[in-house]
Specification:
By secondary structure, the chain is an alpha/beta fold. It contains eight helices and 16 strands. A hairpin with a 2-residue loop joins strand 2 and strand 3. The longest helix has 13 residues. The radius of gyration is 23 Å and the shape is elongated. The relative contact order is 0.13.
């Protein structure tokens, strides 16, 4: 499988949501809306890079670890082009997953289905069949519209880099979505099963709806597993659960190498679907050098 790059489009104003700030920066079940998608991409083993396209209203301290942030354009399509231009060393077979920040319910199952579809197609997207009756209103009458072969298309929309860049180069600057560009080129698109969890936050009432869709069922038991391994190095004690135990060596680590606390933290983060301890306290960050885990 070729490397996959995720582009999260988060430059819109989202005025229809009537929130004090753009919807992607609002809280949803204890996280900002955008952070749910970042976590889903970051924890997927086949996503190697995340690019976030933001607007001028992005929080000043918004700089997710390991992500590339670029400025958006005047339209969504222009923002996507800016995101594509930021991909490090792409080739025509690089997989690009373009996602709306306002769809926080992304799961690994959807990503797996899209990646599988790209083994045989140049473009794919999650979609749900239209269930409600459709009517077209005239001046005085209603006309029934057939639902056959009609779908509600969601994101992420997945592409081979060569296909989407070629299509966008020849497209207008304000498309309804990225599939519109490849459709105009006659490229076959594979639709995979979407999910209600991927409902897009657009109006004020959508926050409550999406919050309920993403909440675990009442009474559900959440289980997490954690483990931690450290080598020994010269020292006179081992720290476990904050207790210094005299020993002929100590555990080697970026912080205090408290393997017991670290394993417990990983288990809690896993149960909460919040990644692992390395996502929140990476060894590349000197703030955690020799930190007390207690």
């Amino acid at each position: 499988m070729n490397k996959a790059v995720a582009i999260i489009v988060a430059a819109g104003q989202g005025r229809r949501a009537e929130s004090a700030r753009a919807k992607q920066w609002c809280d949803l079940n204890g996280r900002r809306v955008i952070d749910w998608s970042i976590a889903a991409f970051r924890s997927h083993p086949k996503v190697e890079q995340i690019i976030i396209v933001t607007g001028p209203d992005a929080p000043a301290d918004f700089a997710p670890e390991g992500c590339i942030c670029v400025a958006g354009g005047a339209t969504r399509t222009l923002s996507v082009r800016n995101g594509l231009a930021a991909i490090p060393a792409p080739d025509n077979s690089t997989i690009v997953l373009i996602h709306d920040a306002a769809r926080p319910g992304l799961t690994h199952a959807t990503l797996d289905a899209l990646l599988e579809a790209l083994t045989t197609h140049a473009a794919a997207a999650p979609a749900l069949p239209v269930q409600d009756a459709l009517k077209r209103q005239g001046d005085r009458t209603l006309e029934t519209v057939s639902r056959d072969a009609l779908f509600r298309v969601q994101t992420p929309q997945a592409f081979r880099y060569g296909a989407i860049t070629m299509a966008l180069a020849e497209a207008g600057d304000d498309l309804v979505d990225d599939l519109a560009a490849v459709e105009a080129q006659g490229i076959e698109v594979k639709l995979v099963r979407g999910t209600d969890r991927l409902h897009k936050i657009t109006y004020p009432e959508d926050f409550d709806m999406v919050s309920r869709l993403m909440a675990p069922p009442a009474g559900q038991v959440r289980i997490g597993k954690g483990f931690d391994v450290h080598a020994f190095e010269p020292g006179d004690h081992v720290t476990l659960c904050g207790i210094k135990i005299p020993h002929s060596a100590r555990l080697k680590g970026h912080s205090d190498a408290d393997a017991a606390w670290h394993a417990l933290t990983d288990a809690i983060l896993g149960a909460a679907a919040l990644g692992d301890i390395g996502d929140h306290f990476p060894p590349s960050d000197d703030r955690w050098k020799d930190a007390d885990s207690g």
